[in-house]
Amino acid sequence: MQKMVSFCMTHIRGISRSQTLLLPACVDDYVGPDNVVRFIEAFVESLDLATAGFDRTLAKATGRPGYNPGDLLKIYIYGYLNRVRSSRRLEAETHRNLEVIWLMRQLQPDFKTIADFRRENKTAFRQMFREFVVLCRSLDLFGRELIAVDGTRLKGVKSGQRNFTTGKLAKAMAESDERLNRYLKQLDEADKDDTTPTTRVDNLDETIAAIKERRARLDEHSAELEASGEDQISLTDPDARAMHSSSRIGVGYNVQIAVDTKHKLIAEQQVHNKVSDLGLLTETANASRENLGVDQRWSCFFDQLSAAISYSIGFMSGGSFQVWVLSIIGLCRGQQAMR
User: Fold this and answer.
1) S-S: 93 plus which of 89, 100, 159, 266, CB 3.0-4.6 Å?
2) What are the structural domain ranges in the chain?
3) 252 exposed, middle or buried (CB, 10 Å; 0-12, 13-18, 19+)?
4) Is the CA virtual torsion 246, 252, 254, 257 positive or negative?
């Protein structure tokens, strides 16, 4: 009788978590030589953070030692590259992510420290961005021949009810006055009627007091808006503005970005609170030219290009679009002839 031989297959198994190692593991062994965190480390170490405008670059002689702003900048850049924007998630990465553990040298700042660093140094980030562009230029990563400029709207962390325009304030004041007159009339009628319950009268008094308080706040907002010289006022986020309804953003910001087409690297980025894009192309393109070191004579071309786009922006259908394209080609040929 022929014997049957059976084979028992098993899965690949890991080692025991309680296994004692002869030599302790080195964190540097887990980060390859081409890992992006090594570039972040080298780039931040090459920056002059004090000149860039970062706070607390020099440690105080007294008090509890604080974190080096360079270390907090490293984790901020890492989060930007990996789409991790939450300070709480960045804090979690310092405990579990080997790349972050290597980058931070096992430092574990809490989420509030990370959030405060981002808030207190937001103006210094722009200078850091320019330093990065200069580095990319030195490595010949920018083609400096063609850039693409586009804008988008980003929603602010606020409600549209906390944003007021002149028309919105006037409408809210008129509604408050109309409601106040209506409730005052009801209160007068209740005073004439002896059968009206006292609880209803008390409720009317409370409602009238609330309407008067809201009307006073609207008057304050109107005075602030008039004194500022702006066309809008935002209470929660003073810099945010109500965008066009077509953008479906509500209250937010107008972001403009210029990208070099060689390696799709950002050459310039700007955040505005202007509702319209008119006039922003020239500003963004000229800033890109300065960052990329393009010849000054191209600024005239950017001005003409901006005028052509601004004129044609509302006529992008049919033959008018062809006329717009031909006008741009003519400007390019004219600029080439001037060289």
Assistant:
1) 100
2) 27-58+65-138, 148-155+239-289, 160-234, 295-339
3) buried
4) negative
